[in-house]
Structures are given as structure tokens and as C-alpha cells.
Amino acid sequence: MFSTKLNLAEKIYSAFNSSFPGCEVGKDDIMSLLTSPPDKAMGDLAMPCFKFAKSLRTSPVNISNTLASALQDIEGIKVESVNGYLNVFIDRNDFFKKTAEKILTQKKDYGKTETGKGKTIVLDYSSPNVAKPFHVGHLGTTVIGHSLKKLFTFAGYNCIGVNHLGDWGTQFGKLIVAYKKWGDEKKVEEGGIDELVALYVKFHEEAEKDPALADQARAHFAALERKEPEETALWEKFIDISIKEYKKTYEQLDIEFDYYTGESFYSDKMPAVIEDMKAKNLLTLNEGASVVELEEYGMPPCLILKTDGATLYPTRDISAALYRKNTFDFHKCIYVTSAAQSLHFAQWFRVMALMGYDWYEDLVHVPYGTVSINGEKLATRTGNVVLLKDLFATATEKAADIMAEKNPALAGNKETAEAVGIGAVIFYYLSANKIRDINFVMQDALNFDGNTGPYAQYTYARTCSIASKAEEMGITPTLSGDVCEDEFVLIKTLSVFPDMIADAIREYEPSIITRYILDICADFNRFYHNCQILSAEDDETKKRRLALTLCTKYTLASALELICMKHPEKI
Ligand code: ARG
Questions:
Q1: Which residues have CB under 6 Å of ligand 1?
Q2: Which of 135, 222, 223, 566 could be cross-linked to 228 through a Cys-Cys bond (beta carbons 3.0 to 4.6 Å apart)?
Q3: What spacing in Å lies between the alpha carbon of 306 and ligand 1's midpoint?
């Protein structure tokens, strides 16, 4: 039975194959050519056949005529061929009934599939550097990473979220020196990461005057590498303080990680990996450092060991990938970081290939653009970076002000203000393609009338209020009767939710869902303004429009959740 664009594409695909045996038309070609024409006289979906003429060696008119006759007997659709276009008319009432029935039965599971059953995806995301500020630069990896985790989970994959904390390196030697010299336990407990950053900054200021400090730092890091108790205890303290603070932000976003296995976790796994590289003759000396030459692949060498034998960022990533493959036997391991790290990933992925691990193709780097903040200066105590917690706090405050004005009944509701404020930031961030640089403007993100998070949440709240009113009035949904144009447009949009999820997963692109949410909102609000719902002229219409509102409510809730947005029932 015909129900979605994907179904139709499949039918057209088989019509191509039976009418033009051996043709090389792909399903993706059909999907991209199949669109909703502006004029409904041209069908609910239409496909131009011009592109196929050359490879099929026949005229577009002949192609559309042939396909139209092959598609004559499909229940629920009527197909016409007009001047090389294939115009498909959907039996609207039937289409409505089938789609709405599916959504109302599956409720919050609508759109879920078992595509990934039995397959594990490891997602490495957020991963801030310990004792360094958690700033807006981490927003991308945190929300894109978590959204991908939710999308893959929705598609039936077993997902493992790993926070690959930057918790190893010579900077910890410096911090230990600074803490021992100038640190105040109480101040550090209270000030958290800000205080650790201040100590780190002080180290650098003092080290300019006193070069001996650098030697002390090296000695302390060496002691940490030997697992000396004093250094280890301090280092663990820095990690605890940092994670405690990150968790506050993760809680606001409802994010939980399966593992907090930072770079240090792989220290004892690296010697074997280095031996493996040596045995495979991959390491060469380059100005005293051990590297894997990648000139042949148009890249600078991948650094494995420093002159003093210390390991590096790529060494730890390679060890982590091997550990994850052995431990989780992943189908894919996905790394979400800023595009600034693209070369790093390309280099060590190539090293994996050279080491002979053919699964290197299952390692995926998902890069994203940078964020800058405009409009309003958000003061921080740590200098010129904007901390994520400060950005969220400002957004929450502003959202509370707007809500107090719009809906005085909700004034002072901290939870809702936070859902709207933080939601606005996330939505704004996930609206553009991930690789584009974002210029964050608070007023725009919080504009209730724009294409924003608050607007989407507001639309969702509207569906909830209609649902509860219907319940009070004792109105129950039904699926019969003649659907009007606005109802049909909306159900058609709701029907493509599964396709949108598949697209977002294929392209590692949560913004596909964000833009889809805006489509639903536009279609729902048009329907809401043009049609009476609970006060419609007859009972059947009332009940059918309630059913459509419920379908919108379920789909919107799931879609918002997939992009890490909360969706309060009242705004
Ligand atoms: N800690 C790094 C940073 O803040 C990101 C780590 C990304 N993950 C990885 N496996 N390299 O830049």
C-alpha cells in the first residue's frame, strides 16, 4: 500500500526496471526528482523524466507515458503523464487514514526502525579538556554528538557515548606546580574550573620570569606518568572538579555518557600499539620524533612519539580506536569535533589503514563549523571565551523575561524558562548545516515569532492544549471524512518523518530534523489558523482534526527530542 514518498519512489523504481530492463536508474535519483509541485493540478507529487532520456535513449514523453501505464493499478494513487512529467495524485482521504492510523498507534515510537539491529555505534563527543573552560566552542560537539546518538538509537542501533576527556599531557605538570605553590584548597573547591584556569594562567606568567618552573612542571608530569601518589591525587582532584562542573551542563541538556574514558585511559595501552607500528615498519625518525610519513597521501607526517619519547594526541586516538574495536566491535565509531581537527583525523585514519586494519573505513569524522557570538557581550571571569554555562544562564534569564510578558501565569517557572532558553540556543545552533560557521545572536534565537526553538516549542504546547481541551470536552479522535487541503498538506509532512530520520543519519546532519520541525510547525499553524478544530461544523470533522493534532503532537515531541530539545506542555 502506498503511504510515503519513499514507498512511491520504490514503486517507480520497479516500474523503471520492468519497463526498461537493464536501466541504471537509482532510487536516490528518483527520490531527489520527486517533489511536491506548487500547483496541485500537477499532482501531489511529480517527477520530471527529462534526466533519464539520454541513458534510456528515448524521449521524456515516452518515459512518463510508459511509467504511468505501469503504475495504473496501485491502490490509493492515480498517475498521469503530462509532457514528460509523471504526476501522481494521492487519494487524500485514504492517505490521511493510513498515515494517521500508523502515527496514533505507534505514538512516540512513530519513526523508529530496526535498521541498526545488532549493530553498535560508538560516539565520541563533547570531550572537553580537563581544567580548561567548557566554552561555546564545545556546544557543537556536545549537541551534534548527542543528537546523532539519539538518531542512531531511534534507528535501532546500540549506541555507546564516550567522553574522550583531554585529561593527559604536560599541562598537568604545570597545574600541579601552580597548585602546590599558589593553590588554596578552599578556593579551588569553590571556584572550580575557573580557579584552575586562573592557576594555569599564573603559572605561565611566573614561568616567564622564572624558567626553573618549566623544569619543575616536567618533573611533576614525569612523576604523574610513574603514578607517584602525590601527583596522582592532585591530578584526580582536577579531573573530579572538572567532571563535576561539566555534569551540571550535561544535566541541563539531559545528556549522560556511558563512559568518561579520557586520553589517560589509554596510557598503558599505547606501548603495544607503538610496537605494532614498529613491527609493521611504519615509524621513521623525523628531527628526533617518531612519525608515520604520509607524503604519499598529500598530508604532513602523523606524529607518534616526541623527541623525549612522550606520546601525542594521535597516538592516544589510535590506541583508543583499537581498544574500542576490540571491546565493542563497533559497526561505526563516530568522532564529532570542530573542522579545525579534520587533518588530525584524516592523518590517523590513514595510519590505521597503513597498519592493515581494514575497518578503518568505519571510523567517521563529523566536523562542524565555529561559533561566534554577536549582539550582546556575555561577560566571563575567564577572559575572552564565552562559557557554555554563562550562555545558558543568559538565555534562560531572557526567556523568563519574555515568558513573563507573554504568559504571566508561567512567570517564575524556572524549569520552563530553562527549557525555552537552552532550547533556543540548541535550535539556533542546529538550524544550519553543521559545517557552516554560526554567528549566534541571542535576540534572534529567542524570537518567538521567528523560525526558532521557542516557536517550535510554542507550537508543540499548542497541540498539547488542544489535546487536553478535547479530553475535557470528551471528544475522541476518528479518521473518517473528507480532508481539506490544509489537513492534507500537514499529514503529508508528518508522513515523511521516517525519511527525514534516514536522511539525517546518512548525512550525520541533525539540522535536517531541525528544518523538518519548522516544516511541521508552518503546516500545523496554517491548519490551525485556517480550520476550526474543536469547534468545527460537524462531529466527524472535529474528531478527524483532533486526530491530526494528536499526530502532530507525537511527531513534534519525537523530533524535538531527537535534537536534544525539551518540550514543555505549557509555555
Ligand atoms: N579534547 C579534544 C578537544 O577539546 C577533543 C577530543 C575529540 N575526540 C577524540 N577522540 N580526539 O579539542
A1: 124, 127-129, 164, 166, 317, 335, 337
A2: 223
A3: 19
Residue with the smallest CA separation from ligand 1 atom 8 is 164
pLDDT in tens, 318-375: 999 999 999 999 999 999 999 999 999 999 999 999 999 999 999 999 999 888 776 5
Strand residues in 247-361 grouped as ranges (E) = 283-286, 289-292, 302-305, 332-338
Question: In 10 A of CB 40, how many CB atoms?
Answer: 13
pTM above 0.70, yes or no: yes
At residue 1, the pLDDT reads 38
With residues binned 3-state (H G I as helix, E B as strand, rest as coil), the percentages for the chain, rounded to 5, are 60, 10, 30
CA of 225 relative to ligand 1 center, distance in Å:
21
Residue 439: pLDDT band with limits 50, 70, 90? confident
Instruction: Retrieve residue 268's grid coordinates.
Output: 598503558
Separation of CA 509 and ligand 1 centre (Å): 20
What pLDDT, in 10s, does the model give residues 29-85?
Answer: 999 899 889 888 899 899 999 999 999 999 999 999 999 999 988 878 899 999 999
Cα distances (Å, whole numbers) of residue 405 to 390, 392, 399, 409, 423:
23, 20, 10, 10, 19
Mutate-to-test residue for ligand 1 from 341, 352, 385, highest number of ligand atoms within 8 A of CB:
341
What's the gap in Å between 160 CA and the centre of ligand 1? 16
The answer to whether the beta carbons of residues 182 and 202 sit under 8 Å apart is yes
Q: First CA to last CA across the chain, in angstroms?
A: 39
pLDDT in the model for residue 253: 94
DSSP per residue over 498-525, as a string? Answer: HHHHHHHHHTT-THHHHHHHHHHHHHHH
Amino acid 382: pLDDT: 46
Task: Give the nearest ligand 1 atom to 313 CA.
Answer: 11
Q: How many CB atoms lie within 10 A of CB 216?
A: 18
Instruction: Give the nearest ligand 1 atom to 132 CA.
Output: 4
* Mean pLDDT for the stretch of residues 248-275: 95
pLDDT band at 158 (very low <50, low <70, confident <90, very high): very high
Nearest to 518 by CA among 473, 433, 455: 455
Residue of the CA atom closest to atom 4 of ligand 1: 128
- Per the DSSP assignment, residues forming a β-bridge with 162 are 124, 259
Distance from residue 169's CA to the centre of ligand 1 (Å)? 13
Expressed in angstroms and rounded, the spacing between residue 291 Cα and the centre of ligand 1 is 20
| Ligand 1 atom closest to Cα of residue 166 | 1
Residue to probe by mutation, ligand 1, list 122, 125, 127, most atoms within 8 Å of CB: 127
> From the CB of residue 222, how many other CB atoms can be counted at a distance below 10 Å?
15
545, three cell numbers: 482534526
